[in-house]
From TrEMBL:
InterPro entries: Acetyltransf_17, Acetyltransferase_Eis, Acyl_CoA_acyltransferase, Eis_dom, NAcTrfase_Eis, SCP2_sterol-bd_dom_sf. This is Acetyltransferase. Acetyl-CoA binds at residues 92-94, 100-105, 128-129. Homohexamer; trimer of dimers. Pfam families: Acetyltransf_17, Acetyltransf_9, SCP2_2. Keywords: Acyltransferase, Transferase. Residues 312-404 form the Enhanced intracellular survival protein domain. It comes from the Bacteria. Belongs to the acetyltransferase Eis family. The active site is at 133 (proton donor), 416 (proton acceptor).
Length: 416
């Protein structure tokens, strides 16, 4: 590996009509193989970055920008109605001609140092490559299913969801969508709040990369009191596609009944035989709600949210718990943030965490595994079987499974 000595690093807030921001946007697009941004796309992207209050970092060799990195603050649900501030990392690119010079390590370690100093207990990211971020202490904490539902004449749901669905204009999601998402976000551990660019994509408006798509349609679900508690936006994939297919762009429900009601609506759309969605819950209740279990095909699994614990005490005291119990957890962290041995005592759904490096551990993990365990969506017994959790006392992994069980279904649908 080379050295960062030949590079300068600059971090600055995104700004509209700013040459530095525009140069950064074009470099980030090149890194992800997107077309060069038009003036309109530059303005739209900058506006979203500003709205998110993103801090942009660039690595420069002379005047040439060769790597990009951004960070911004959001909230992560760590238990129903428990939203923890989180530092999100995004837009990471390094030119292939400048790799193996320590550029990413410099940008990431600088960021984590700053986030920890600012009091952030958690950092998180979603990734385009799954082999890069464990070295920085990130572990997979949530994942999503790619699913395809067959909706031919055999389709039937085992029960009738309450409420009703109605078609709406996709543009209505500008005001309706954030309200529904707020209810979803409050209910699901693992959910990250939406960022500014999301809503244009969801409703088919012009995005940072594409023109407006008039083929995007939407429907809302209304509860028995007539209040909107879910929505879906979708796109017909074309008459040349066999079977005729709807692609779900976004489906958000405040509760399980609305979720099933939206699927019932999608299955009722005329001249369509298949529904595809690439961000369904990992353990999708729809499979258990349809008469033909095989009508819902799992076409893929995708790692989604990666978590990096920066402050073990603050992070584990912030999340919600189901019951009571205790354990001693030893963490090895090459970057130091989570390193140590911790006593975790849970009573009445809340935890007290104290560092005690003299304590004998029940289990030992490395920092990425700690991130995977944090929300409770990853089974400690599975991690032990994979050699990623070491048990020092009998049935320790089973005890961790019970102690860290999530209060609600772990699921998020925000990519950033």
């Amino acid at each position: 590996m080379g050295s960062t000595d030949d590079y300068s690093f600059r971090t600055f807030p995104a700004a509209a009509a700013d040459p530095g921001t525009n140069t950064w946007i074009q470099a980030e697009r090149r890194g992800f193989h997107d077309t060069r941004a038009t003036d309109e796309q530059l303005a739209r992207t900058a506006d979203h970055l500003v709205t998110d209050r993103r801090q942009l970092t660039g690595a420069y060799r002379g005047d040439e920008l060769v790597a990009t990195f951004s960070a911004f603050e959001s909230t992560l649900n760590v238990g129903p109605n428990t939203l923890l501030p989180v530092s999100l990392v995004s837009n990471v690119t390094v030119r292939p001609t400048h790799r193996r010079n320590g550029i990413l390590r410099r940008m990431m370690t600088d960021h984590l140092r700053g986030a920890a100093a600012a009091g952030m207990a958690i950092a998180a990211l979603t990734v385009s490559e799954a082999t890069i971020y464990r070295r920085f202490g990130f572990g997979v904490a949530t994942w999503v299913s790619h699913v395809a539902l067959t909706t031919d004449t055999r389709f039937r749901m085992l029960g009738e969801p309450r409420g009703r669905c109605e078609l709406i204009e996709a543009a209505d999601l500008t005001t309706l969508g954030p309200k529904v998402f707020a209810a979803f976000h409050a209910a699901h551990p693992g959910s990250v709040d939406r960022h500014a660019a999301t809503w244009n994509r969801v409703m088919g408006a012009a995005t940072e990369k594409d023109d407006a798509n008039p083929g995007v349609y939407a429907a809302a679900h209304y509860d028995e009191a007539g209040q909107v508690d879910g929505y879906v936006s979708y796109l017909f994939k074309g008459w040349d596609t066999a079977p005729h297919t709807l692609e779900v762009i976004d489906l958000v429900a405040a509760d399980d009944n609305a979720y099933l009601g939206l699927w019932e609506f999608l299955a009722s759309v005329d001249l369509v035989e298949r529904i595809e969605w690439e961000a369904a819950p990992a353990d999708d209740p729809l499979r258990w709600a349809v008469a033909d279990w095989r009508s819902l095909a799992l076409t893929g699994l995708e790692d989604w949210l990666w978590i990096r614990v920066l402050d073990v005490v603050a992070a584990f005291e912030a999340r919600a718990y189901v019951g009571s119990g205790s354990m001693v957890l030893q963490v090895t962290d090459a970057l130091g943030y989570a390193d140590g041995t911790y006593r975790l005592a849970v009573a009445d759904g809340r935890a007290t965490v104290t560092r005690d490096d003299s304590a004998a551990p029940d289990v030992s993990v490395e920092a990425p595994t700690l991130g995977s365990l944090y929300l409770g969506g990853v089974d400690a017994v599975t991690l032990a079987a994979a050699g990623q959790l070491v048990q020092h006392t009998p049935n320790a992994a089973l005890r961790v499974r019970v102690l860290l069980a999530p209060v609600a279904s772990v699921y998020g649908s925000t990519h950033f």
